[in-house]
Design a protein that fits this description.
two-stranded antiparallel ribbon; 13% helix; single chain; 379 residues; alpha+beta; 16 strands; 2 domains
């Protein structure tokens, strides 16, 4: 229906829609008379035009049913009538356990035990976490778009759907001077080096819309709502890499995408062309789009980290005193992990900007390198 399409909103040349003409009483009704047709009246009406541009079916339908020319039965609970001016109810709540999820994965592991002083454990997981949400819907106010077809409306990748996860633990215990005999043995024996390496692919990255969340066009009763996301209207070409010196473009007056303020000087962006990527998304259109609730149409940044422990065991005073000297490094390479952007097509000024709510304003979400030194003596 063109009248609900973002490409038609605000367009005075929208083709006449037979449904609107019949439902609103025709060109001679009180609502449509001034505009010539009911379709033109909807497009010209400021409030309804906002509803159309946001594609909020509940708001549009509620506004239409309150017009003086409405001819169809007022069948939704929020519909007003002469007998019930305020409507019967603002919405209908239904708490049940119709949500579901599944997890499938390929898991591989490789290990060695004290092979020439080397002990390792390597794990790799290739998995998918799919479902209708990331939590119990019966107690979380998580609303589906269409309770009559949960799978079609919201089924998709869950928030913790990491496709690839890899961990590597490594321990090297010096094998040749374990007895620590002589001066050379005391210097070179007893050393242990133990790095821990972790890496994973990007997390699901939702793209939000204004006032997201409604149930089958009848009401907006969830708060907060995390079930209604923007959809791709064109092929995604944005990528997922931390790019420096990439601001959301701004005009000489400081305006960014669609006239909004630019992104406050943070020059780290996930997209090389934030404007082009922003324009690839649009609001979900219920009844037109087959799935508006499955996030992860795009992925955030992949990341990795390495911690390290270097330790030495030693004996003193004819082995009557033993000790362990240890250096523990967190983020030994001081590698920066940036926070994924908050993407919302109703808030384009910082679209793709990395590092909101970050450590000391740097965009970093992991800790900088830290060193802990310890000495333990045993009598």
């Amino acid at each position: 229906m063109c009248g609900l399409s973002p490409t038609c909103a605000g367009n005075s040349s929208v083709p006449v829609q037979p449904f609107f003409e019949a439902a609103l009483g025709g060109a001679g009704s009180a609502f449509c008379k001034a505009a010539g047709t009911c379709t033109a009246a909807i497009v010209k009406n400021a409030n309804m035009n906002n509803f159309i541009s946001q594609t909020q079916v509940f708001q549009l339908w509620s506004a239409l049913s309150q017009t003086p020319g409405w001819t169809l039965g007022r069948t939704i609970p929020s519909s007003q009538s002469t007998a019930i001016p305020s409507g019967q109810a603002s919405g209908i709540y239904a708490d049940d356990s119709s949500g579901y999820s599944n997890y499938n994965a390929l898991y591989t592991t490789f290990s060695t035990r004290d092979w020439h002083g080397v002990t390792t454990l390597s794990n790799f997981t290739w998995g998918r976490a799919l479902g209708t949400g990331n939590q119990s819907q019966a107690t979380s106010s998580y609303s589906v778009l269409n309770p009559y077809n949960v799978r079609q409306s919201v089924y998709g990748p869950q928030f913790f759907d990491y496709k690839f996860t890899y961990t590597q633990t490594f321990l090297w215990s010096e094998p040749y001077f374990r007895s620590q005999k002589g001066i050379l043995g005391h210097l070179l024996g007893g050393w242990r080096i133990a790095p821990i390496f972790t890496a994973r692919s990007g997390a699901p990255e939702p793209v939000y819309t204004l006032n997201a969340g409604e149930s089958f066009g009848e009401s907006q009763t969830c708060g907060p709502c995390f079930g209604d996301y923007a959809v791709l209207g064109a092929k995604f070409t944005g990528g997922s890499t931390a790019l420096y010196n990439t601001n959301v473009p701004s005009s000489p007056t400081g305006a960014g995408i669609n006239g909004n303020a630019a992104n406050g000087g943070n020059n780290i962006n996930m997209f090389s062309d934030p404007v082009a990527t922003f324009n690839q998304f649009r609001p979900c259109i219920l009844g037109f789009d087959t799935n508006c609730g499955a996030q992860a149409q795009i992925r955030g940044l992949s990341n990795w980290n390495m911690d390290l422990n270097v330790a030495k065991d030693f004996n003193l005073f004819r082995e009557r005193v033993a000790g362990t000297l240890s250096f523990q490094f967190v983020n030994v390479f001081n590698h920066v992990i940036l926070r994924d952007p908050y993407l919302d097509i109703s808030d384009p000024s910082d679209f793709g900007v990395l590092g909101s709510n970050n450590i000391n304003g740097t965009g970093q979400v992991n800790s900088p390198r830290q060193l802990t030194f310890s000495l333990r003596l045993r009598f």
